Amino acid sequence: MAVVSVDKNVEALSFTIVTEFDAGVERVWRIWEDPRQLERWWGPPTWPATFPSYDFTPGGKAAYYMTGPDGTKAHGFWTITAISAPDHLEFDDGFADEHGEPVDHLGTTHATVTLEPLGGRTRMTLTSVFESQEQMEKMAGMGMEEGLRLAIEQIDALLAEAANA
Question: pTM to 2 decimals?
Answer without folding.
Answer: 0.93
